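Recall that a protein's primary structure is simply its ordered list of amino acids. Everything else, from secondary elements to tertiary packing, is in principle encoded there. The following example makes that idea concrete.
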Amino acid sequence: MPLTTAPDPVSTSLSAAILNLLLPHHRTTDHPETPTDAKAFPHQLRQISAYVRANAPIVFTLPGFPCKSPNPAKALGHLPDQGERLSLRFLDSLCRDIGRIYPPGARIVICSDGHVFGDLVHVPDDHIDAYADELRTLIAASGLDRLSVFDLRDVLGDLSHTAKRTHVHDRYAPSVEALRAEVRTDEQSLALYRGITRFLVEDTAGFTGTRSALQRECRIRAYGVIQRSRAWGDLIADHHARAVRLSIHPQPVGAPKFGIRLLDAPDAWTTPWHSAALRRADGTWTLMPSTAAARLGHLVHRDGRPSHFEQSDASDASLVAVTG
């Protein structure tokens, strides 16, 4: 069914109610006093309203879930674990909540982007394939039928991973010069560049050079990651043109992309694939580097693999915020 464009009060009100279900999970680095009313997100309201007027299921796209960090101090291995499991359940629950007030419901397409920049983050392509395949398995086994996974295999089939990356880069990626100019003049672009550089530094294990040499190398690679991420975003827009774009990166209020927090973490940039999950003594969950979680709890295995940490002593709960 084609999406219509004529506004009306009923669809506008329902669209705001749908967006209000997402607002408590908005991932942003804006100040706490920044307005969070649905009206402050015109891009998302307009996109959701188009679905509502057509009485069609709302489609969200979420680039992310690329692969696990290769640094064992941060993650528990190269396959999804409890962090991803909880995040997938959360995303499915958001769609379920939308369905309660909007019968056509919603679905989220997880656009797994590991192969897009796997060479830049130094993760083997077979690990990336295994990670994405396990995501699909988790979704199916858990009955999360409002979620699906989309990756380069859905676009470019059996081409080699190198050929796929080259194709996406050549067709969609902005120039490094354009990105450098943007980083110099735009605060959000600078924050993204610094955040990715930090992740690359933290994810590098076994580097034999100096810290400054590592930082220089990671600054160069960060521009490559941003190039490929932008390219992936444009490719997704071509294949899911009307979808509401979510982001795992913090986004300011009113931005075209809606930043969404998957799980609690002391840092707005933390994701399940850069960390391990810790179940606090009070039953709540948080994300942190695996080495920090190991100091607070004991390791739990699931299906024969490391899954998460559990905190057993309630007296340790105050340490989570300190060490996270």
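The longest strand covers residues 58-64. The CA atoms of residues 132 and 154 lie 12 Å apart.
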